[in-house]
Structures are given as C-alpha cells and as structure tokens.
Design brief:
The protein has about 475 residues and is an alpha/beta fold. It is built from 14 helices and ten strands. The strands form two sheets. It has an eight-stranded mixed β-sheet with strand order 3-4-6-5-7-8-9-10, with helices on both faces. A two-stranded antiparallel sheet has the order 1-2. It is globular. About 30% of the residues are buried. InterPro entries: AB_hydrolase_1, AB_hydrolase_fold, Epox_hydrolase-like. This is AB hydrolase-1 domain-containing protein. It comes from Paspalum notatum var. saurae. One of its GO terms (molecular function) is catalytic activity.
C-alpha cells in the first residue's frame, strides 16, 4: 500500500487519504533526520500553506484595515446626500442636479429655529413688504448657516424665505462633469449658480426678490443682479468676499490747480537745438523698443500663466488632488469654522456637526475639486469683466453688513466696497466675526429689518425710522 501511494500522484494520494475510514489512520513513513519538510499531500490539502506559514492554532487575529476619517467623519460609510436630508428639506431638479433647499413661510412654526429671535422682529415688521428673500451661502457652508435667521426673516418680509445649497456644497447632489460633457452648463460654474438663483425666484412665484449673500455667496448675488437686474429688488451683502477697488482719481486739495488743466510751456517759439532733436529721436526709438519688449513679456507671462493653470487643473484632477482636499478639510475644516467667529469658544458641537454633515455624502471631495477648478477657469477668463469694475453700475438698494473683527474678509474691505456702490448702506456689528447671521443673529436681524423698512416701508414707517 505504501508503494502504491508513493507511485501515485500527490492528487491521487490526497484523494485516497480523504477517502480512508476514520478508524483506519494512514500509515506514516519514518522521517529522516533534519528539519521538517512540507509534504506534497499537505500542500494539496491546504493550498495556503507554505514553508513560512504559522500553524492554525498559533495564528494571530487578522489586522483591521485602518478606517479613513476627515474632520471626525468616517469616510468608509458615505451615503447619498438624500439620505442626510432633514424633515423640512426639499429637492428641486435643474439640468439633472437635485438642489437641496429649505423654504420658510411667516406662518410656519418651525421648532428647530430659535424662537427667541422672533422677539427681535418689531411690530413695524408686520407690515407687508411682500417680497421673498433668497439666501446664498458662502464657500464651504450650506443651508445650515442660515438656520438661525430664516424664520425671523420671513416674518420681517411677510413673505417666503428660501435657502439652497449650491452644487459642491451641502446636500445638493454631486454630479460628474467635464469640458466635453453633453450637459448644457457646468453645474459647478458661477453661471449655473446664477441660473439657479433666478430659477428659484420663479419657483417662489415672484417677479423679483431680495438677494442676501454671505461671503462668496455675494458674488452669486451680484452676478445675478447683472444678469437680470429687473428680478432683484435689493441686495444684502454679508461679509462680502468681493475685492473692493481702490480710488484711482486723486482729489485736488483746496487752492491746488487742476493737474489735468495745468498749462505746459510752449516750446514752439524756442530756437531749434540739434542736440534736443537727436535726443528726442533716440528716446522715440527706445520707446518703440520698450513697447516691443513689454509685448513680448506680456505674451510670455500669459503663456506661463496658461501653462501654470493647466498644470494646476491637472494636479487637482489627479488622485493626489483628492488626497490634498481630504487632508486640508481634515486639518483646517473645523479650525476654519472656529476662526470665523469672534469668540471661538462660543462655537458649539451643534455648529460643528452642521458644517461637517456634508462630508458624509458620497463624492463630496470630487465635487469640491470641480468647483475649485471652475473658479480658477472663471477668474482666468479674459472675456469676463471683473465685478469690482462694475460695482458703480448697481442701481438697486444695497446693504453691506459685516463683523468689525472679521478675520477672513476685513471690515475695511467691506466698507470700501460699500463706498464703491452708489447709495449703499454700510453697517458693522460690534464684537462679531465672519458669520454675523450665526454669531450675532439678533443684531443681524435688526440691521436687515431696519434696511428693509427704510427701503420698502410706508412713508410713515420711513419717517419713524429716520427719527430713530
């Protein structure tokens, strides 16, 4: 029998050993001296066995895979944005994008809002302004950033207040898009946000609305005004992330002659000077050479800038870009929220959870990258006129409100922005950071109510407001 086993193939031997009765143990060959050798039958019976394997009885428990976490959110258990919706959440689809939004009416009794803020709305606020308000959040924020003031604002305006999550933020659906996509418009572009803003005015059944933007949301509000000024009744720009232009015209001091009208001596009657003519021709030649050099520098600069932008976009679209976005959000996401407040110790766990909730949705990092790329492309577009150069064209009522200790958008920039807009009103809330509507909601509501009453109130209310 041993001879037959030795002549058969290892597979045949394994089959015979397996079929042998339990009461008849297989015969064993005497092992020669030396280190043990793995038999062929053993390798067949246990395909995972090798010379360096550990016996089953001595195996250590398997090592658990390290779970990824961003700002305390487990990235191995991401869900669709719809699954994170609140009871009062709604979705409105535009061009295949499901936009998360919330609507608050003056008759609503929302227990989730701060009821004490309703006391800040005066009796005069009961007058019928009758214009809906659209709230536009800033970069990295969402509908959550307006949760403290939505219901009081609806009572002030005596109309609906709507806040929505722009693509790449909040619970709005994430979608993939490329430059050769068949979709009509990049959902992460400024143009799409403007289109959605105007579409929500139609959604509310209104001809026009008051647009309230915060930080980067102010860019959307102002662009929406330039796109359709007849649809915007007023603008409220909160801590606006818009670069305010500097004054380029220097005013003359009293008694100082006008620089543009100063008389220049007339050299026509002076005797000709050969040296002056030669020198003038030399300077004219250098003028042409300098102009040519400047043109070449401009071309090279534009080329370098183009190549730099192409390389930056390619990096962001690579796996390294995704890793970088996760790292930045993990290291600076919560820190950025605390830094936006005048007193970071007042930031609650509820606030942190509200800002980190979108990190639980699938594709959040890819959408954020696409939004960043869209901003880069828009800023590099030569055909796009900077908003800062068009501020003087705004003719609707404008309120600019900011915190006096804003560390992200300095208060002096907001004040300078108000001076650049004809007739704009500027208000600075004391001891407040970048988020007045969250950190100082009572003061914020008072400022907005006073502005709306002044602009849209009855003549009696306007006289009362002027007396105050």
């Amino acid at each position: 029998m041993q001879m037959l086993l030795s002549l058969r193939s290892p597979h045949a031997a394994a089959r015979l050993l397996t079929a042998a009765p339990a009461s008849t143990p297989p015969s064993r060959a005497v092992r020669p001296p030396g280190p043990p050798r793995a038999s062929a039958s053993a390798s067949v019976l246990n395909p995972g066995a090798n010379a360096g394997s550990v016996p089953d009885g001595a195996k250590m428990p398997p090592q658990q895979r390290r779970r990824r976490s961003v700002a305390g959110i487990d990235q191995d258990e991401l869900v669709e944005p719809d699954a994170l919706a609140d009871p009062d959440s709604s979705f409105y689809e535009i061009n295949g994008v499901r936009l998360h939004h919330k609507v608050c009416s003056p008759e609503d009794k929302d227990k989730s809002s701060d009821q004490s803020l309703d006391n800040t709305v005066s009796d005069a606020g009961q007058s019928l302004i009758g214009l809906p308000i659209l709230l536009l959040h800033g970069f990295g924020a969402s509908v959550f950033s307006w949760s403290r003031v939505m219901r009081p604002l609806s009572r002030i305006a005596r109309a609906k207040v709507l806040a929505f999550d722009r693509p790449a933020f909040g619970l709005t659906s994430r979608t993939t898009w490329s430059s050769d996509d068949t979709k009509p418009l990049n959902p992460y572009s400024m143009a799409f946000s403007v289109m959605v803003t105007l579409a929500f005015i139609d959604y509310l059944g209104a001809e026009k609305a008051v647009l309230v933007g915060h930080s980067a949301g102010c860019l959307v509000a102002v662009d929406a005004y330039f796109e359709a000024p007849e649809r915007v009744a007023a603008l409220v720009l909160v801590a606006p992330a818009i670069f305010a232009p500097r004054k380029t015209v220097k005013e003359n001091k009293p008694g100082e002659p006008d620089r543009q009208t100063q008389k220049v001596p007339n050299d026509g009657n002076l005797p000709p000077n050969l040296f002056a003519r030669v020198w003038g021709g030399f300077l004219e030649l250098w003028k042409h050479i300098a102009g040519f050099v400047l043109k070449m520098i401009t071309v090279i600069r534009d080329l370098v800038r183009f190549l730099y932008l192409k390389a930056l976009v390619a990096f962001l679209q690579s796996p390294l870009g995704v890793i970088l976005v996760r790292w930045v959000m993990d290291k600076f996401g919560i820190l950025g929220v605390r830094n936006a407040w005048y007193d970071p110790s007042k930031v609650t766990d509820h606030d942190i959870q509200g800002y980190t909730k979108p990190l639980r949705s699938k594709g959040w990092e890819t959408a954020l990258i696409q939004h960043t790329i869209s901003m880069i492309v828009d800023s590099a577009s030569m055909s796009r006129v900077s908003i800062s150069k068009r501020l003087s064209e705004i003719s609707c009522p404008v309120l600019v409100v900011t915190g006096d200790t804003d560390r992200i958008v300095p208060a002096w920039n907001a004040e300078r922005l108000a001076h650049a807009i004809p007739g704009a009103t500027f208000e600075a809330i004391k001891c407040c950071g970048h988020l007045p509507q969250e950190e100082r909601p009572q003061e914020f509501l008072s400022v907005v109510e006073r502005f709306l009453r002044t602009v849209f109130g009855t003549p009696n209310e306007q006289m009362f407001q002027a007396a105050v």
